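Fold this: DUF1772 domain-containing protein
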Amino acid sequence: MSSAVTLGLSMAHALELPAKRRMETAQWWNLSRTLYRPWFGRAGHAEGIALLAVPALAVMDPDSRRQSLTSSCALLLANPVLFFSLVAETNRATLRYGDEVPLDVIALRDRWEFGHLGRFMCHLVAFLALAWQSSRES
């Protein structure tokens, strides 16, 4: 369930990407500061639960079914790396600059948007690996 919630959150970012990249930079900056700030530190709880639950499943599962769970674990573990290397800098900048649009707003926007797209792809494949694992059990 936590993997599904995490997938849903990252899918929302992926679906928004084309429209948000067409926005004027000041409009995008204001949206990022106001719409997403309440989520800072909250949306990651489902991801944290998935990061604990999926490896636990891999350890508890018989060897014959462990490969898809291990793949899912690896993809879920890649997400914090993507987050902290791409997305978090823009989150910090929205707090640091406030209403003032920084000079590097386009670079920050692209890092943030494509960082979330990469996270979505990892979440999607991880979720598909979990779903495939579940279907094999039936």
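The CA atoms of residues 8 and 120 lie 9 Å apart. The two ends are 18 Å apart (CA to CA).
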